[in-house]
Amino acid sequence: AQTVTQSQPEMSVQEAETVTLSCTYDTSESDYYLFWYKQPPSRQMILVIRQEAYKQQNATENRFSVNFQKAAKSFSLKISDSQLGDAAMYFCAYRPDGATNKLIFGTGTLLAVQP
Amino acid sequence: KAGVTQTPRYLIKTRGQQVTLSCSPISGHRSVSWYQQTPGQGLQFLFEYFSETQRNKGNFPGRFSGRQFSNSRSEMNVSTLELGDSALYLCASSASSGSVAGANVLTFGAGSRLTVL
What we know:
The complex is a heterodimer of chains A (115) and B (117). With 115 residues, chain A is mainly β. Chain A has strands spanning 3-5, 10-14, 19-21, 24-26, 32-39, 46-52, 60-61, 64-69, 74-79, 88-96, 104-105, 109-114. In chain A, the strands form 3 sheets. In chain A, strands 2, 5, 6, 10, 11 and 12 form a 6-stranded mixed β-sheet that branches. A 4-stranded antiparallel β-sheet of chain A has the order 3-9-8-7, with no helix packed on it. Chain B is built from no helices and 11 strands. Helices cover 0% and strands 51% of the residues of chain B. The radius of gyration of chain B is 14 Å and the shape is globular. In chain B, the strands form 2 sheets. In chain B, strands 2, 4, 5, 6, 9, 10 and 11 form a 7-stranded mixed β-sheet that branches. A 4-stranded antiparallel β-sheet of chain B has the order 1-3-8-7, with no helix packed on it. Chain B is mainly β. The chains are: A mainly beta (115), B mainly beta (117). Chain A binds chain B through residues 31, 33, 37, 42-47, 50, 52, 91, 95, 97-108, and chain B through 31, 33, 35, 42-45, 48, 50, 55-56, 58, 88, 90, 92, 94, 97-99, 101, 104-111.
């Protein structure tokens, strides 16, 4: 069975600094998708970034980028120039390829941004 | 474009009762998924519907059920409520259920917070 592990329950970063959130996963599949979702106190889950396993190039969305290491089954999220609005719970998620939208989530990392 | 709408946002029930939660997906989205979020178990997949058919089901007891209507709106029902059913129930919609890149991004609603007393 596929699993997703986030080993950092909480992280803190100074405003304008850079922070990296870790995520590892376990799967025997070769094709799959990985996501980072953000859940602020308002509870609405928001997609931050996604990565297709067949793409070697790391995904980037403005201040957010990933370091995808397929062989190591690692998928970390880097947030550059952190802003107060980045404070939230961040979830790493795995989705197998095929006709499904089932996501397997990690336990989340609570990110605090200090002014 | 309206987002995913979940109703009710908050509700309180007592043990043994049943509850029905509703989810209206983004217009044009045919896939709806449900997740349960609790502090202890985290985010767990409940089930997924596509074109009125259940495509996948998570590891939950039969008390949890759902359905999808022809307009893609979905409902989930929990019967004989237990204290452990207290949770945030999240609904998410997607344009399709398949491997087409870009079409499988889930958009989540704000959730329904269920408290069982």
